[in-house]
Write the structure tokens for this entry.
Amino acid sequence: MPDYGARPAPPSADKRWKLVDATMRKAGANAHGLIETLHTVQQAFGFLDEEALRYVALSLRVPLSQAYGVATFYHFFTLKPGGRHTCVICLGTACYIKGAQHLLDTMQQTLHVAPGETTEDGEVSLLTARCLGSCGLAPAVVYDQEVAGKVDVASLRTHLEKWARHDS
Amino acid sequence: MTPEELEDIAQRERETQREFPQRVNVCVAAGCLSCQSDAVKEALVKEAASRGLGDQCQVKGVGCMGLCSEGPLVSISTGHLYQHVSARDAGAILDSLQGSLVEQLLCPTDTPFFQRQKKIVLENSGTIDPERIEEYIACQGYHALVKALTEMTPQQVIAEITTSGLRGRGGAGYPTGLKWSTVAKAVGTQKFVICNADEGDPGAFMDRSVLESDPHRVLEGMLIAAYAVGASQGYIYVRAEYPLAIARLKTAIRQAERLGLLGANICGTGFNLHIELRLGAGAFVCGEETALIASIEGRRGTPRPRPPYPAMEGLVGQPTLINNVETYANVPPILRNGGAWYAQIGTEQSKGTKVFALAGRVRNTGLVEVPMGISLREMVFEIGGGIPDGKEFKAVQTGGPSGGCLPRETLDMPVEYESLARAGSIMGSGGMIVMDETSCMVDVAKYFMDFCMTESCGKCIPCRVGTYQMHRILSAITDMSAAAQDLKLLEELCDLVKHTSLCGLGQSAPNPVLSTLKYFLEEYQAHVHEHKCPAGACGVKMLEKVDA
């Protein structure tokens, strides 16, 4: 049984915990604020590690199992750090009809990773999206937050080579 | 805020607009932004400034103009539309405000894509700056709210919505007026209004476009709803995957609060509503209302049995009204023009208009708003411009993973809730994906089953295990390793999952399979008996494509 007495101290002196604390305060420091808080943690740190989950669970007074349950239920949350670059391939219906699976297969073969994984050198994370809502531009790919439309294998390869040369 | 003050703001804004004899509107909704329309806007602003046109020519960012596939789109005050604009066209576009048009960029607007539409929800989309409340007010924005608060009782508001015949635009089509009156009659210590903006259907982007192009319209709809049902707290549950929509909603909420149109004692009438955003975290099942409520409460998004319905016991056990983005967006024009006006549009059972996200193998892809009752043929071949590359039309998919694939024979069917359901699909939230002869219908069914299997929350067994088993059979069929009895087993599983699942996700998960079995059985049989894929998409051929 965790100690629910005092408010726990942040895991480190890292200033980003102040953002997390602010979100929890705003949400009333109870279980209802769990998802909002995890969003803030992921935005600040890039992913959710055990330390963060323990701290959030204790602060919001929810069992760690519930925090872990929520963190793993929702696709948006990730428990692993991402690569230096991320490539999100949209697998929405419009993109699928226009060959997104083919793009994904190409990426898997080129990078030797499965969707959701990061290359061994920590350079590129390969992710898939349910739908970006950019169906008019299908197939769509997000390179480091930037959406590109009407992507084909050639432009995908060009982008990977650009990353490999450390151009961006 | 009194009606007079509101009219003052509108008047001032209209005068400011008139001071600019020339106007250039650049689409800055997500579709065009991903083709760098922000750079186009910047180049236009810079070019206008360097020519000293600052006080004559207004360059502004506006919401979605619809034809996303031809973006970035720019419209000018002469009424012409330019497509595929890039930053280096800025000079030529400014020249064309007085001189001759830039022929090579011109996008014809006398086509069915533009002419066949009827815009109610999207009336301001592509013409106003979504980040300025004054522009919304100048287009009669918040007039419906002030009218409701100062001239109408909550009962009158509900009566007007009931007269309009508006039905839920999230997919199921429940009568909005009835839902509102249930919540209004329910007893609780506090009532809530929730806007469902968790647009999870792959292939649908209507709600995102509305939120990005005209966020105040949704806030106004929620405000009117809250007044009608007696709620004082509102939430907008929006996908975290829509950062631009989130940013514009936040701006809109701040602006409305500053003008006293949102918050405490709205318009001095003693009516209060606070609206907060809640970010979804990527779970399709959260579109289901009880799962959505669980998610707002910070829990895993798993549904619970209904009744009690959220209208009686929703968020924290209190009466809660949940409507979709597009439903709320329809409310202000209904109150401004009257329910009877709205009821004239559409068909007997489906009133008004519907926004569709037209995509897939069709020439014109983008956002369209059409009156209910338009035929699928008009949608695909007139508005959509037909199938590109000389290919043959095969099917149109509506309703996403909960809907079905409709074949050529159904093309003359009107688009309305009942007829789509009779044909084995659903209206859904408005995704409409066109497929040509290169799409294998078994593969498409497998694609949707993969979606439902992954998105199943795991709470009830029929959905959790059933979707997995159906996906396994569909995979075997596309791998050419299925046996003849598998088709029968697949049908049985469809029946079981449809009738025994807990929530809408599981109950509708078999629809893509059932509709393709009904209309494209020969494709299934070709895979099973002849080990070949008529569309050439499955099995060994797929691998060859990857190597090429």
